[in-house]
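dude i think i finally got it to work??
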Amino acid sequence: MDIGFATFHYYPYGGLEKSMRNIALEVLRRGHKLTVYCHSWQGELIPDAQVEILPVTGWTNHRKMLSFVRKFQQRIKNCNHDLVVGFKRMPGLDLYYNGDVCYRNEMASKPHFPAKFTPRYAALSSFEKAVFSKDSSTHIMYIAEREKKIFQSCYGTPDTRFHALPPGIDKNGIRGVCSASQRPLLRRSMGVDGDTLIALMVGSDFYRKGVDRSIRALAALPVDQKKKLELWVVGQGNPDPFYKLATSLGVASQIRFLGVRDDVPSLLGVADILLHPALSETAGNAILEGLVAGIPVVVSQSAGFSAHVTNADGGVVIPDNPWSQSAFDHALLKLVADSQYRRKLGSQGWHYADTTDLYHRPQVAADIIEKLAKEKCESI
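look at this
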């Protein structure tokens, strides 16, 4: 089969991009031809896939997106792809991998909804409508039931166009460095003494991931508990505003921004707690990585994968409609103060990760791609 993938910008450390790459590798492993279209590419290419860069014009992101979509639609007219799969919303897709929250719903919840009259809103909402409208024929791969229901409430998209995906966590990569024997070695290698507790956050876009919420929770701890804890943040972003907040709260010396890292499994092996108090999050692979690593997870309910934390009883889910900083502060305090409680939640998360499929997203996605491509070819 001849498959086309489309995205806007490829960045090797994003969760969406990692999922696209893993699905691409599975499609190629099965012997299919694959062309990936984008307007810019950062990092290593996908072996055996053809990557076509379609240069764009425009000063703003939405102008660049519009430019790419026009060129992409023109380009695929001259191709004979059996299926076109998008990893960003745009017209002209047979299948869409949903890695973003519902834009229409998100904008409707903002206090400054006049933004809906801007060119950016017009462009992005039209892209979303092209995928999810009742009149569209685009199928959707989704990873969180909560987000599916939000899209259906906004667009009335029928169930028949949705295809559920399991998570795609690298269990072996995480468990290989998170054993009880490896943990002390990792902590020593990273300069962590035996009494220090590490709260880890993983993910770019620090504001949306709730880094400020974690800093406030650290600062709210009683003095005797506060001095035990360090907050480590992994991902791409500007740490300066958050250092400024931490300085004003007197905890700057206990926070480390580590940038993008290739050794996240090792950091999970060092960590005692995973924090993910995101403002919005379609899924949140880091949440599941915490469960697989056997460390307790504190997560906001808006994150799609927070349901796994509830099912596992592997942490604490904080309601966020509205957000309660005090509830988050209390959850962190209990985990810092009670080592048995940490071990109990971590053990329950570890067991859940052994008995639940959190791992086969690329294989299931490739099955869906093959099925829809076959149906499309048979209908012509």
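The mean pLDDT is 94.
im so relieved honestly
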